[in-house]
Amino acid sequence: MSVTHQPGKPTLLMAEDEEDTASLLRFLLERSGYQVVHAPDGKQAQQLIDTMPAPSLVLLDIMLPHISGLQLLPYIRKKPEWKQVPIIMLTADSSEHDIEQALASGANDYMVKPFNPRELSARLSRFLKPAV
Description:
Elements: E1 11-15, H1 19-31, E2 35-39, H2 42-51, E3 57-60, H3 69-78, E4 87-91, H4 96-104, E5 109-112, H5 117-127
Parallel strand pairs: 1-2, 1-3, 3-4, 4-5
Helix pairs in contact: 2-3
């Protein structure tokens, strides 16, 4: 699982197990000029976190197979080179408790699916300069 960096393109790590959502996100993000690295489950996300350079931003689902997004949050924040990477939770989980836990564990933002593509773009632009 190697990641090739494309100069000039911000890299986003997307941890998303739902194939349709992942395809839609990849399409929207690549069209906006981002390079997308996709992990379909928590275990692969953790492997990428251990092996790839810190991305410009992480889009993290909570309900992932093997390792949840809530378990990955503190793991990401313990890595010195990933400490400042913005993390947006993008999940169908709208429970107040999980939102509070995610934000307390180091998430910078929280969006509930289904999401509005314009709102996602606006939230991304809070953390990244436009890629195009």
